Amino acid sequence: MPETANLLAFAAIAFGLVLTPGPNMIYLISRSIAQGRAAGMISLAGVACGFVVYMTLAAFGITAIVMAVPFAYDALRLSGALYLLWLAWQAVRPGGRSPFELRALKPDSPRRLFVMGFLTNLLNPKVAMIYLSLLPQFVTPGHGSVLTQSLVLGSVQIVLSILANGCAAWAAGTIAAFLAGRPLWLLAQRWVMGTVLAGLALHLATAARR
Q1: What sign results for the dihedral spanned by CA atoms 125, 128, 132, 136?
Q2: Percentage of the chain exceeding pLDDT 70
Q3: By CB distance 3.0 to 4.6 Å, which of 6, 61, 154, 175 could disulfide with 55?
Q4: Which of 1, 7, 120 is CA-nearest to residue 53?
Q5: Residue-wise over 149-185: b if at least 16 C-beta within 10 A, else e?
């Protein structure tokens, strides 16, 4: 099992990232608004399967890296910080969009909804960065099995992502209607998330070497 402090810290970062507008959230919310809540939930099932694939591959890969190249943690830490800064800029840059802004999508079959959710997640660079750059920093070599720690941390990320994305997709229509005539709320949402991400990036970049 991961150390309690590492588990809580990773959960906080994972939760902050899942609330950041990205391909998964944008797709799920857009699908729910365009085709209804059921379509959003089917798409979410595909997204969840994509997370499982990433978690499994990353867990075994992280184990190999820890055993062979311990100093790779520094490279992973800095690349993770840079990616968080990039996400922060995407949130506040001029012309940025909130995931709750209305988009038109044509109706799709349940099978296509699932596959599209799965592929959207597999091709999502934010998910890849979470597992390849962020998760390894919360694994403590010598504190039990590296593989087990990776799987536990990955499972926490998946549960948080499913809960947050599920709630967003379920309430998408209501939230979108509320924000449609309130552009200042959309702007505030983007700046709050951008500030949080920048803070996480700074913490990650200045963290003590593992």
Answers
A1: positive
A2: 65
A3: 154
A4: 120
A5: bbbbbbebbbebbbebbbebbbbbbebbeebeeeeee
Report yes or no: 170 and 57 within 8 Å, Cβ to Cβ: no
Q: Mean of the pLDDT values across residues 130-159?
A: 82
Which long-range contacts does 86-93 make (Cβ < 8 Å, 24+ apart)?
A: 87/17, 87/20, 87/22, 87/126, 87/197, 88/193, 88/194, 88/195, 88/197, 88/198, 88/201, 89/194, 90/21, 91/20, 91/21, 91/190, 91/191, 91/193, 91/194, 91/197, 92/190, 92/191, 92/194
DSSP string, 108-171: --HHHHHHHHHHHHHT-HHHHHIIIIIGGGG--TTSS-HHHHHHHHHHHHHHHHHHHHHHHHHT
**Angle at CA of residue 192, ends 187 and 17, nearest 5°:** 115
Distance CA 23, CA 6 (A): 27
Residue 89: other Cβ atoms inside 10 A: 13
- CA triplet 23, 28, 32: central angle to 5 degrees? 150
CA dihedral 122, 59, 159, 166 (to 10 degrees): 0
Is residue 117 a contact partner of residue 46, using CB atoms and an 8 Å limit?
A: yes
C-alpha span between 58 and 72 (Å, rounded): 14
**What's at 41, amino acid-wise?**
M
Q: Is the pTM of this model over 0.85?
A: no
